[in-house]
């Protein structure tokens, strides 16, 4: 059973130290063959690092989805249901920390700096 939650990076499932380190190593090993005109040994090292990273990423993804399935299987009441759903649901609304007055002041100062305000005598 698989669950599509729109990717894993927003949930932090692939953002642990092990994945970051392996991705960093893979990116470094990619820069080496680029500089060395894709010599065979450097290219093979990059391909091996990339294969290890992809394998780790797939395993983490599989473990993540299996954890969700296990959580859903253990649901016994409404409270545990909503706890499980909260884990996979994305936040739909984030309030803007900047008030509308601050936005208006910003745009007024921005447009005043671009063009001076029109005088009352102008035909427009």
Structural class designation: mainly alpha
User: How would a crystallographer describe the biggest sheet?
Assistant: none
Query: Rough shape?
Result: flat
Number of strands: 0
The proportion of strand residues reads under 5%
Order of H and E elements: HHHH
Task: Give me the number of helical elements.
Answer: 4
Mean pLDDT: 79
Uncertain parts? 1-11
Percent range for helical residues? 55-70%
Rg, nearest Å = 26 Å
Distance between the termini: 65 Å
Task: Give short descriptive properties of this protein.
mainly alpha, 124 residues, 64% helix, disordered N terminus
List the helices and strands and how they pair.
Layout: H1 17-35, H2 40-73, H3 78-88, H4 100-114
Helix pairs in contact: 1-2
Please summarize what this structure is.
The protein is mainly α.
Structure report:
By secondary structure, the protein is mainly alpha-helical. The protein is built from four helices and no strands. The chain has a domain at 11-89. It has helices spanning 17-35, 40-73, 78-88, 100-114. The protein is flat and about 75 Å long.
């Amino acid at each position: 059973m698989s669950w599509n939650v729109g990717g894993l990076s927003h949930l932090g499932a692939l953002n642990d130290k092990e994945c970051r380190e392996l991705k960093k190593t893979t990116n470094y090993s990619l820069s080496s063959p680029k500089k060395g005109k894709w010599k065979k040994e450097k290219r093979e090292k990059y391909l091996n690092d990339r294969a290890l990273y992809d394998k780790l990423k797939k395993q983490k993804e599989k473990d993540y989805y299996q954890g969700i399935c296990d959580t859903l299987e253990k649901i016994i009441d409404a409270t545990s249901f909503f706890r499980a759903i909260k884990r996979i649901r994305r936040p739909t609304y984030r309030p803007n920390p900047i008030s509308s007055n601050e936005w208006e002041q910003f745009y007024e100062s921005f447009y005043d700096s671009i063009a001076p305000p029109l005088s009352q005598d102008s035909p427009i």
